[in-house]
Amino acid sequence: MNALVPLPVLLPLCATGLSLAFGTRLKQLQRLISVAVLTAVLGLSATLMIAADMRGPLTVHLGDFAPPLGITLVADRLSGLMLTVSSAVTLCVLVYSLGQGMADREEETPVAVFHPAYLILVAGVSCTFLAGDLVNLYVGFEIMLVASFVLLTLGGTGPRIRAGSTYVIISLFSSMLFLTAIAMTYAATGTANFAQLAGRLTGLPLGVQTLIQAMLLTVFAIKAAVFPLAAWLPDSYPTAPAPVTAVFAGLLTKVGVYCMLRTETLLFPGNRLGDLLMAAALASMVVGILGAVAQTDLKRLLSFTLISHIGYMVFGIGLATRDAYGGAIVYVAHHITVQTTLFLVAGLIERRSGTTELTRIGGLAKAAPLLAALFFVPAMNLAGIPPLSGFIGKLGLMRAGVADGGVWAWILVIGSAVTSLLTLYVMAKVWNLAFWRAAPPGQAATGTVLEADSDEDDDGDEGPDRIPGTGDEPVRPRHQPAGRAVAATLHGHAVTTTTKLPLPMTGATAATVALGLAFTVFAGPLTSYTDRAAAELIARAPYVQAVLGR
Fold it and tell me: Which residues are listed as membrane-spanning (predicted)?
């Protein structure tokens, strides 16, 4: 069984080479390879999760080199659950992207880059979850960075390049800080292996321990978009294509949360920085949800709710009790699924109505009842309406806070309740504007957004008489697929009208909705599993013994 541990990383990397080899010449085969590999990764991840729960942590020392020389991969209960949920979500998003026809747009480029970049991203995420040392964790981050920059700038439009540049600058800064932290750790302990560090860090002076812990937390807080290190996110994610935004919002920030969970429990027990984490959690909740209240664009609104709900997970990490860790793990799994679903629905709304600006759309509950249902269920789940999984995760965290009884714990309990109510308000606002009210005057015909002139970097060509956002801009649709197609101007958007969204897009979105509901249906087994995962994290001994053999 241990031999299966590297496969979630190796399979996507090997498939990347095949995907690049086929390129645009055999597009159908390229797509088939991607879907087949991600399906296999999902099966492997579920197998590892079950095996880790039954047998304890599974380990592999690549090349049979023992720590600290070799590369160690470890699959325990936490990493097994994260792998399984992330694999299911990435498979659904891939199917969605195929329905959207994203890969077809790559015919303009020398090689079809979407599938290879996406597979590399999956490999990087898997490598991060399985990493048994700081160096391999850094490698996983860099793999994700390379792939995410390609996906974020797909199409080469002006706003995407600008957003991608910001994302890369922030990521490179965090990578430099991460490398510095790794160098300091190795210089102080002589190893970067997690299991060995668990025993050696405690022998360092308290100031050195705290400095290393603070540096690692800063790196992971940037990745997780914890306030005040989250300013880059609302401007970076909304510009990307819908499936890319969905997988970024659902997965990449949770990688940072996972790393915080792993290092705070395994390397730095004792919760020395617990008050700081809880202060950051409260700030993330409040600032994020207030930012969402102020937004009228759906993608930006969801980006701010993402920042806000990261605060719930950091709340659990800051409390540092078994119940708190269990609640945080439940909420991570829930949020990966629900946040991905909401961004996929935002993509469907954009294709249907030509925009995600809530002031310019309406009447979708009557015009597209299936789309309304696909939004309503995850929206209520995010708001924490009983008995959905969002309520279960929040209730677990709030009960842990009450049991703790500290001042910060009670403040976070109140902040969690207020944030949940404001989230419900935000979701109700989206529902009322986009779905429940009548369509506003001048709303574009239902259709599929192909390109936005505002996405083109045409600053030098507009001239004084071409003012962006007035509807005066020329429409230059890039594609005209078969079927009913009418070019229309919508504040610079070229729209191709259609009466039916692609089945793979709605099917993939429905699958993520069903996955979120499955967390509710199987809440008992899920919470039992996360409780065992939390106990394993606190114990530390099972992980250390599995890696070091003693």
Answer: 31-51, 81-99, 111-131, 137-155, 167-188, 208-233, 240-261, 273-294, 301-322, 328-349, 370-388, 408-428
